[in-house]
Design goal:
CATH architecture of the largest domain: Sandwich
Structural class: alpha+beta
Oligomer: single chain
Strand order of the largest sheet: 1-3-4-11-6-9
Low-confidence stretches: none
Radius of gyration: 21 Å
Number of domains: 2
Number of strands: 11
CATH superfamily of the largest domain: Jelly Rolls
CATH topology of the largest domain: Jelly Rolls
Helix content: 40-55%
Distance between the termini: 11 Å
Mean pLDDT: 85
Strand content: 15-25%
Length: about 300
């Protein structure tokens, strides 16, 4: 049984489908969809949230899509994998034609347009910018650069995402789904290794690494805040806030997200051997109700249900 969230125009009158779909699309990003076909427009959107990222799969009849800069989505980067059909994408000052299996990185905080003249399905991986900066700090330099999914490391990443998506469509309830997000990063790193420019770490990169280390060192301390991080790093609190702002987040949000990820891993690993209360206090929360609310917002279920294996 698939556990994908699905939105569709199937139950909408043909004349109302395009306005309906534009309203739906704006829930994901501020885009405008124009139909290119003579037949009635039709589209579907599947969604699945993972622990460290989100997967979307839009399917559509021929269309042209425009996207204005979306500062609300400044905290993510998107990888678009062409799953079926062919599309032309323009982003980051570059134009790329994607055949089946090819993929391209785009920044939803920047303008984007794409078009396709046949029925098309894409797989979009939404990556938190804070995690990108931590694991692959130079990935943003590759916005708009197409990667072939037919050879080399690009084929490994593309095949993995397309096969994983087809498994999700048929059975997204397996334990393997929780580890899917972890498997994406090393494959993505290999896919961009050849085209990524070699850049010597600068002082800002070193400060960012020091910031991540400072967060991890005191992550479970309830008193960890921007001032504690600044003292550990020997910089001002304003500078620490600026480093987080460059990653599209805030110190409080980043710390809370890391604590929730740590809590989720403990609940997965230890299951019924640990109480939700113990986990909440152990990872740095000093209030159980606050932990439960934050956990539900992050994982769309209670810590108790997550521990019981009802993830998805």
């Amino acid at each position: 049984m698939s556990l994908l969230e699905q939105l569709s125009t199937a139950e909408v009158a043909p004349s109302d489908r395009l306005p309906f779909w534009n309203d739906i699309a704006r829930l994901v990003a501020p885009i405008q969809v124009e139909s290119l076909g003579e037949t009635p427009f039709e589209a579907r959107l599947y969604r699945r949230k993972l622990r460290d990222c989100e997967l979307l799969s839009p399917c559509s009849s021929p269309a042209r899509i425009y996207s204005a800069p979306d500062h609300e989505n400044a905290g993510v980067l998107n990888i678009q994998v062409q799953h079926r059909g062919r599309s032309t994408n323009h982003t980051g000052g570059r134009t790329a034609v994607l055949e089946e299996g090819d993929f391209v990185l785009y920044d939803p905080s920047k303008p984007l347009w794409l078009s396709f003249e046949e029925y098309t399905q894409a797989i979009v991986v939404r990556l938190p910018l804070a995690t990108v900066e931590e694991r692959m700090p130079h990935l943003r330099s590759q916005v708009g650069v197409p990667v072939s999914g037919r050879r080399g490391a690009g084929a490994l990443f593309s095949s993995f995402m397309r096969n994983a998506w087809e498994e999700l469509e048929h059975d997204g309830s397996g334990e393997w789904v929780d580890a899917l997000g972890d498997a994406i990063w090393p494959l993505l790193d290999m896919a961009y290794a050849a085209s990524r420019p070699v850049i010597e770490p600068n002082r800002r990169d070193e400060r960012r690494r020091a910031l991540f280390e400072a967060v991890e060192a005191d992550l479970t301390d309830p008193d960890l805040d921007v001032h504690r991080l600044a003292r550990r790093m020997g910089v001002s609190a304003r500078y620490v806030q600026m480093l987080f702002a460059e990653m599209g987040t805030t110190p409080r949000a980043f710390i809370q997200n890391r604590r929730l990820e740590l809590a989720a891993r403990r609940l997965e690993r230890e299951g019924g051997d640990v109480t939700v209360t113990d986990v909440a206090y152990d990872v740095g929360f000093n209030d159980l109700s606050s932990f439960c609310r934050a956990f539900r917002r992050r994982f769309e279920m209670s810590p108790r249900n997550y521990r019981a294996g009802e993830r998805g």
